[in-house]
Write the structure tokens for this entry.
Amino acid sequence: MRRLLILLITAWPMLAQQKTFVACPVVRDTKTVPCFLADYQGETYFLGIQQDITAEFYPPQLLHQVLVEGTVVPGPRVCGGIPLKPLRVSVLPELDRACNTILPAEPGIDAPPSRRPAGPSTRLAPVSTAAVPPKKPEPPFLEREFVIEYDFDSDFLFARNTRQLTDIAEYARVSKAQMVEVIGYRASTMLSNGDLLTEKSNVSKLRAERVAGVLKGLGTPASTVRWISEPASANGETDFRNRRVVVHVSP
């Protein structure tokens, strides 16, 4: 028992290790859906699986490197890679033709269960339960802060973000908001090898203006739109949280 305890204590720092690196994504085929992996310092890490665009994980692209930010978690390998959780994967815009690896399916390497079956993305698996409509905001209507997170160096809004913006607009409408403030932020990211990545200088402006534009289209024009051009300092652990737009709604 004592030996087992020592082994667990020794292994824990490795399991809880933060990994932040840039690498080419690797696509591994399986009998169900493709898996996405990344190699770093002699190890392979699991990023996610191919699903429809409403999924939380949005697959990276071949011919582009990705920024991977995650923490090693205990448990078996997934698709042959070490799982990371929480995990953020950002596609870097520069073209890299070396990022073109596709691995064939192998016996014993399976993808985790998914809603989307093998084949074109239009072939969705049946959903057993009906879609639940969003819950209507209820009083008391207090000042609220909504945070929209982004991929590195990007102002692109994914499906999950547009759902957030719909919720913000609905809260502003129901609460009869007197003020809606949109603030964009810029970040930097510390890699595990000590290198520092910094987002482009105008990304906070692009993020704020895009969010304000969507809210206006939803009938919620912002009272104030501003952005912070100076990048937030990096710590190599929670840098992804600084890539954001914050929306303050005051009834």
In short: The helical segments are 2-15, 159-174, 203-217. The longest strand covers residues 82-95.
